[in-house]
Amino acid sequence: MSEAPPSPPVTRASARLDALRAILRRYARENPVALIASVLIVASAAATGTLWGEDASAWGAGPLATVASGRWWTLLTALAIPDSTVDAVSSLLLALTVLAYAERLLGSRRTGVLLVVLGVAGLAVGIGLHAAAWTLTDLRPVVAAEVPVLDPTTPIAGVVMAASALAPTLWRRRLRLVGFALLALFALYAGDADSWYRLTAAVIGLGVGSVLARGRERRSWHRSSTRETRTLLALLVAVVGSGPIVALVSGGGRGPLSLVVDAYTQYDDELLSRCGSVAQSVCDEQVALLMTRGAGPALLAITPLVLLLVAAWGLRQGRRSAWIVALFVLTASAVLPVVSLLDGRLRIDPWVDGSGAEYVLWAVASILIPLALAAALVVARARFTLRATRTAARTVAAVIGLAFLACAATLFIVEAVGRRSFDRELTVLDLIGLTLRRFFPPAFTNPGGGTAFPHHGPALFAYQWIGVLFWAIVVAAILWLYRRVRRPDAGGEAHYRDLLRRGSDTLGFLGTWEGNRHWYSDDGECAVAYRLAGDVALAVADPLAPVGRRPEALSGFSDYCVEHGWTPAFYSVHSETLDDLVELGWRHVPVGVETVMDLPGLSFAGKTWQKVRQPLTRAEREGYTAVWSRWHELSVAQASQVVAIDEEWVADRALPEMGFTLGSLDELRDRDVRLLLAVGPDERIEAVTSWMPSWTDGEITGWTLDFMRRRTDGPNGMMEFLIAKAALELQAEGAVVLSLSGAPLADDPDEPVDGDPAPLRSLLRWLAEVLEPAYGFASLFRFKGKFRPRYRPLALAYRDPLQLPAIGAAVGRAYLPDASRREMVALARTAWEGRR
Q1: C-beta separation of 722 from 689 below 8 A
Q2: How far is CA 122 from CA 172, 196, 203, in A?
Q3: How confident is the model at residue 402 (pLDDT cuts 50, 70, 90)?
Q4: Are 237 and 207 contacting, i.e. CB atoms less than 8 angstroms apart?
Q5: Does the pLDDT of residue 687 top 60, yes or no?
Q6: Are 214 and 166 in contact (CB under 8 A)?
Q7: DSSP-assigned letter for residue 10
Q8: According to DSSP H, which parts of 135-168 are helical?
Q9: Pick from 340, 355, 145: which is nearest to 260 by CA?
């Protein structure tokens, strides 16, 4: 009887394909409404031809299309058919992402119902308001009743805002703040009917959501007043900066605030329109103006908007330099249009009735909004305390000053040399005035009539681009300045050690290591050790606090981080601290397990201790001894051997040595740290371990294992020998707990940790598998299991899931701060080979 042929091996590609199929099946199972909506959007766009640009306005809704024509069915078709390819793609993406998130909050049945109800309600109310606005003559220039609306994002906006009421506090704030800011941005600046209908549906959805959430236990809207203020002001500055750009992209905009675009578009169009009724010389000048148009002048025109967006980025992080930039640009944006309007450089087209309403809206958009926002920044100036170093500030000032001088001198020289490219003779004063004007937006500095312009050659190129080059340097300098901030001194290490001796957990001594900073409460009774990696403050282990004051310490440190523009995260905290953080609204993910041996009554008798007792007995029989010492007590020969063992261990891996919570030779030199050496009959040191103390009421009651190294050519069982000897001898000294430290990325085999999202848990398990060939975390964890320890889960606590990438990068930088590129390549190669 012949054997069956072996089944083909599962390839990596097929495994990935199976994983992708599983993800898609799970998505379809959890988000059927979002998936159906996506299919409907694509199918309707294809059926009506809008997917490739055909006109389908007959299916659209509006005051004329729906009410006047009696086509009430357009209230449904307008919700399913996109009006263009761009609208189809954007609607599809929103349906697959934010609508899917809303469906998980609301449930599929309610999501399906609300999509129809809120979509129809948003259109109906929006059309009614639109028709009412059309009856007001003064508002006709900013409404477009004759354009039917096709927009599937209208019901999506309503459903998302309804679902926000059921979202966690952080996401509820984010959905509402960002969502309404974007909706208002398009409505007030672009002003098309689609934008107003979306905003109407969102407002109705917000009310429906509040009804759905009635009776639920709700957390306060505000989590951190400082963070809220910074985020809100940054968002407002970004909206003010983005609004004119949105209006420009939408063809000049029809929103009530779109008149601000006049300051960015009236460069030469207005004067050119008068060419038929003015002197020939003026028309010749306008032809020259046309020749000076292009990408350069366009970029120079939107420089204030770019600066506001750059300032918004810094305001969100609490940068004082961003506050100064925003205040300067907002004030200038309000003053320059007034000056330009008064001296005739800027003109506002009157509306049909000549009521002057256009001047009111122009003043609101161009003057009132920037000044009001500038006033708000002045009031909230204490929120932006993160200052750049004096050296960095002086450097940026010098760079900007030298860049201005260099650019101005270059432009002046090129213009002077290329005078023939101008249509008339220029004096030195003319050249100076022309040079200075090229550093400001053209609409505010171009006087009507009389100014010469280059027609061709290098003078024309310099005229178009020299201002852009200068402002590009300014933007780059500002962004560079954001990264050079003063790092406040939060206190010295001595007081932290005093608090440690008062009482600390098994990992508290990690806070004394080099590279850590220390935060203290106002009375100095609470402390948190943290590692600053970029803008992330990684708190190391549990805080030091008297009984009952740990929540106070956690909140105080978090507020301190927010004040300085940092993202706080608590790394390797135990369940007691984690419970307090959860009460404060934090989320968490497991990052390892601490293995702890309780020393009272410990003995290595019995069959269960055979794997520990055998190496201990064998080492003693062969003449090995365990010698306690401290680094400063070692002889030169002993210290040299310890260094050689460590160097051998590092060289054997050819990988970067990790730090942060994993000690190295530097941490052995602390006088509070004890060393336990495995010394052979020939006085050769075969292995070395280090032990960090922990205190209770001023007395040392525990020791934590940190540094572990052994000779690669030494006998087996040396680590079991040292740990067993340490347990027995420290037990005799009165210690009650012996921690074998944490095992990174390990799972508690007895009690899984709750609270982390399944994808994150899967990611950590995958990461543990990848790093295992390089660092052997899982092997180390299994080794410690020989000592029958008690498992204490360690967690990473964070407030915002969107901060996890930054926190993860910060943890990586903390563990590998000095890794070279070659070492990182070696790490990646080792991890890859281990996965094969």
Answers
A1: yes
A2: 21, 9, 9
A3: very high
A4: no
A5: yes
A6: no
A7: P
A8: 153-163
A9: 340
Query: CA-CA distance, 568 to 488, in Å (whole number)?
Result: 16
Residue 750 has pLDDT above 90, yes or no: no
d(CA 255, CA 189): 5
Q: Are 92 and 42 in contact (CB under 8 A)?
A: yes
Query: In degrees, to the nearest 5, what angle opens at C-alpha 506 toward C-alphas 500 and 508?
Result: 40
* pLDDT for the residue numbered 602: 87
Can you name the residues that pair with 374 across neighbouring β-strands? Answer: none
Whether 176 and 213 have beta carbons less than 8 Å apart is answered as no
For residues 391 and 513, give the distance between their C-alpha atoms in angstroms, rounded to a whole number. 28
**Phi-psi region for residue 44, left (φ > 0), alpha (ψ -120 to 50) or beta?**
alpha
Please report, in angstroms and rounded to a whole number, the separation of the first and last CA atoms in the chain. 36
Rounded to an integer, what distance in angstroms lies between the CA atom of residue 750 and that of residue 479?
49
- Residue 113 in this model has a pLDDT that exceeds 70: yes
Query: Rounded to an integer, what distance in angstroms lies between the CA atom of residue 67 and that of residue 427?
Result: 65
Residue found under tokens 């799972």: 747
- Tell me the per-residue pLDDT of 756-774, one tens digit each, with 9 for 90 and over: 444 445 545 555 555 555 5
Give the least confident one: 81-95, 533-547, 802-816: 802-816
Q: In the chain, how long is the greatest CA-to-CA distance?
A: 113
Residue 242: what pLDDT? 78
Q: What is the CA radius of gyration of the chain?
A: 34
| Prediction pTM value | 0.64
Per-residue CA distances from 288 to 263, 293, 408, 454 (Å): 20, 9, 22, 7
State how far Cα 539 lies from the chain centre.
19
> From CA 336, how far away is CA 262, in angstroms rounded?
13
Q: Pick left, alpha or beta for residue 635 (phi over 0 → left; psi -120 to 50 → alpha; otherwise beta).
A: beta
Average pLDDT over residues 697-721: 88
CB neighbour class for 344 (10 Å; exposed up to 12, middle 13-18, buried from 19): exposed
- Contact yes or no for 180/202 (Cβ under 8 A): yes
Least confident interval from 324-338, 439-453, 722-736, 779-793? 439-453
* Residue range 661-682, pLDDT digits in tens: 677 777 888 899 999 999 998 8
Taking residue 548's Cβ as centre, other Cβ atoms within 10 Å add up to: 7
| Angle value at C-alpha 743, between 740 and 746, nearest 5 degrees | 140
Query: Tokens standing for 737?
Result: 């707990």
Long-range contacts of 335-340 (CB under 8 A, 24+ apart): 336/263, 336/440, 336/441, 336/444, 337/263, 337/366, 337/367, 337/444, 338/367, 339/444, 340/263, 340/443, 340/444
Query: Which residue type sits at 162?
Result: A
Structure tokens at 567: 């993202």
Report strand pairing: 587-598 vs 737-744.
antiparallel
- Mapped onto helix, strand or coil, the DSSP state of residue 793 is strand
Q: How many residues does the chain have?
A: 836
Q: What is the DSSP string of 384-435?
A: --BPBPHHHHHHHHHHHHHHHHHHHHHHHHHHHHTGGGBSS---HHHHHHHH
Confidence of residue 486 (pLDDT cuts 50, 70, 90): low
Q: How confident is the model at residue 427 (pLDDT cuts 50, 70, 90)?
A: confident
pLDDT per residue over 145-163, tens digit each? 567 888 899 999 999 999 9
% pLDDT > 90, the chain = 26
User: Which residues is 626 bridged to in the sheet?
Assistant: 678
pLDDT band of residue 333 (cuts 50, 70, 90) is confident
Average pLDDT over residues 550-574: 90
The rounded mean pLDDT for the chain is 78
Residue 744 forms beta bridges with which residues? 592
Strands (E) located in 9-110:
none
Residue 350: phi and psi, rounded to 5, are: -70, 150
Overall average pLDDT of the 563-567 stretch: 87
